[in-house]
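Tutorial, part two.
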Amino acid sequence: MISAVNRPLPLNGNRHIICTTVIMKKIALHAVLFHCCLLLFFVSRAQTEAIQPKQKVAVLAPLYLDSAFDGSSYKLSGNNIPRYILPGLDFYHGIMDAVDSLKQDDASVDVFIYDTKRKGGGIAAVLKEVKAENAGLIIAAFNNAGEQKIVSDFSLNENIPVISATYPNDANLSGNPFFVVVNSTINTHVSALYNYLQQNYSKSKIIYLTKPGAFETRIKNQFASLNKKIKPLSLKTVSLTDNFEPGYLLSLLDSTRQNVVVCGSLSESFGVNIVRTISAAKSYKATVIGAPTWESQEAFDNPDCFGVEIVYSTPYNYSRKDKIEAGLINDYRAQHFGRPSDMYFKGFECMYHFSKLLVKHRTNLLNNISEPSFKVMNEFYFEPVRLTEQSFAPDYLENKKIYFVKKQDGVTKSVN
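Running the prediction step on this input gives:
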């Protein structure tokens, strides 16, 4: 090829033809070489992917199998499952349906499910098995702070990320950047609520209702601290008893305008009593803003709570009207002849979303924990939390994305 280019060319019309032929041969050779290199690249990549081990996910859930079964025989009396078993069971159903979806995606994941309430060693024995399996991720449904601490200490020692899917509590968490709280803590909800009021009701007179209690005092103090602003909210703080007089509450309201009432308690009965009292007095119009515990409060769908606009905060917004949610509800009804709880959706969403992130990022999962690529129903935005100014490493990572749901007369009006 090179000698052909350097050879003297005849001074006639064939010179252009010869040059073109030589150049075309060069291009053809380069193209062959390029495709060979490309083929070798894809073969090498395929071989690399083929030898990469599957990612292992350990799921911890309170299933109480030893309490309900003797071997394969159901040993509890009657046909009904005890209420204390239902949350963990629904979480498990959500996990398994997500596993089916991961299989359809050909996701390279092995899933191991452990009953945290099993007899014989408890959570410590479970974690020994998790370590033996060399799990790369733990997804957990805790229901007490003691188990949370044990798993947190284990994750820090073993450098295994933990997705706390359901427990909205930071008790016993310290110096562990591997621990991820999805179901946001009350501190995050209170901060988000304050910002929501600033954005939507900064010019309104707001009635802040509280009651005696350690948790209520903590919320009230945080709210008061946040309200030390250049333009603070116009707040009137009133303490009520659990069995407050309806007339006293109504005396705080103004019949000529839309009242804004904040319930500064996680007590569901206290919140329901406030809404029912205002609902019964038809001359008063009010927006009552409450805690994340209101999300599952079925009483607000009853006529004795109608006429009041209800607002609550949640990190998990399950409208049950979304296309994905509707499909999951139909599948659940077909399999279990019932209606799924929020625990089912939390299990499904966390299993699918974080497993897909694990497969994509492997050992770099925590640096990409807020990536929205595999969003199912909710957006998550995680920030490091340092409980003291002296904390060098984050005490944990927490989901700071909070939704505000407006409902009236049993119907969702909007989501912010």
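The radius of gyration is 30 Å. In part three we will examine how such features are distributed along the chain.
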